[in-house]
Specification:
two-stranded antiparallel ribbon, globular, 12% strand, single chain, 6 helices, 189 residues, alpha+beta
């Protein structure tokens, strides 16, 4: 099954960014609010996210060290997706590059023609970090956008034909914005 055929919300996680590297920051919800909601509370949560993201076939053993690395990677990606500059961005690049320098998961062709990544959580995080390096180090970095909903902090890769996508999800933030606009126009009539 292609990633585009999967639902945007899977096992309590949001996958609206267009690539796993951009989806990882969504594991800290309401990050700008008074009480952000951490979705990676335990190593088991990280294992579930890796499966939900399609990076792992089944939950593997994850450790507190893996969880710490995932959270550091998540924050580095969030900073770089926002186009920040200066020492914060330099630190984020260093974190990203340090994680990407490890031994990555190995892609394996399956008899049915699909691929599967082989490796533990640490190797999968290295693969994820390399995906982020490739994204931010290419022309595709220009396609990274933040959802225009005032209450959403998610980023996405805008691969729309016209390059004018505004929402992380049309069925979530986009629909809410259209309803608000419709109600505003109705009040003005």
């Amino acid at each position: 099954m292609d990633a585009h055929d999967l639902p945007e919300d899977r096992d309590g996680f949001r996958f609206r960014g267009g690539c796993n590297a951009i989806d990882l920051p969504a594991t800290l919800q309401a990050r700008l609010g008074p009480s952000p909601r951490e979705l990676l509370n335990s190593p088991d949560d990280l294992g579930r996210w890796l499966v939900s993201a399609g990076m792992a076939f089944r939950t593997s053993k994850t450790t507190a060290k893996d969880l710490s690395a995932a959270r550091a990677l998540r924050e580095a990606i969030y900073i770089l997706a926002g186009g920040r500059r200066g020492t914060e961005a330099e630190a984020a690049c260093k974190t990203l590059n340090n994680i990407a320098a490890g031994a990555s998961a190995v892609p394996s062709l399956q008899p049915d023609g699909t691929t599967r990544l082989e490796g533990g959580a640490e190797a999968l995080l290295v693969t994820l970090a390399r995906e982020a390096v490739q994204l931010f180090g290419s022309e595709a970095a220009r396609l990274v956008r933040q959802c225009q909903s005032p209450t959403c902090t998610l980023y996405f890769v805008d691969t729309s034909r016209r390059g004018d996508r505004r929402w992380c999800s049309m069925s979530a933030c986009g629909n809410k914005a259209k309803v608000r606009e419709f109600r505003r126009r109705k009040r003005e009539d």
